[in-house]
Amino acid sequence: MNQTDPRTIIEQQLKPWIRSLQKPETAQEDVLQNLLALYAQTGYGREHDAGEIKTIDDYRRSFPVAGYEQFKPRIEEVLAGEISSLLSEPPIGWAITRGTTKGESKFIPMTPTDMQMRVSAGRAMMKYVLDTGGYDLFQGVNLNLNFPSRVGTIQVMDREVEYGYSSGIYTRFV
Length: 174
Fold this sequence. Notes:
Blueprint: H1 6-22, H2 24-39, H3 43-47, H4 56-62, H5 68-79, E1 93-101, E2 104-110, H6 112-119, H7 123-132, E3 152-156, E4 159-165, H8 166-173
Parallel strand pairs: 1-4
Antiparallel strand pairs: 1-2, 3-4
Helix pairs in contact: 1-2, 1-7
C-alpha cells in the first residue's frame, strides 16, 4: 500500500492507540512519565517535585487532588504572561466550560500538546472505519451540536485573544 492510501493513513494514526490497548499498564506508565516531564518544566510541577517522581504512588503523595479554585491563581498568572507557572508551553487558545464555579465560567488554557491529545480522541471513529471499510463516513456533512467555539475575547498580556466553549473548540479541531 502507498502512503496516501486511506487505510495506510488510518493504520498509522491508530498504531500507538492499538499498542496501548495491548499493554494498557505500560501505556499508562508512559503517559504518567510524559506528563511528569512536562510538569517538571513548570512552577507548579517543581513545587510538587515532578522531576523526582518515579511511580504512581509517588505521584499520588506529591500531587494533591485539586479543583479549579486551587488552579485559578495560576491560570491568572498565565493570563498575565507567567506561562511557566502552570504550563510547559504557551497556550494557543483559551476555552471556557459551561460548568460554573460560583457563577463564573472556568477559563482553561489550551496548548499544542493538549490539543494533540484531544484530537486523538477521534481514534475510536477511525478504528470503526478501518474495521468496517466505511470510508464514506468522511464524506458529506456531519451534524454535531456543540456550544460555540468563539464567544468573546479576553486580555492575555498585551493582546486580546478569542475564547469559546471547550466542547466547540475540541470538536472543531477533531
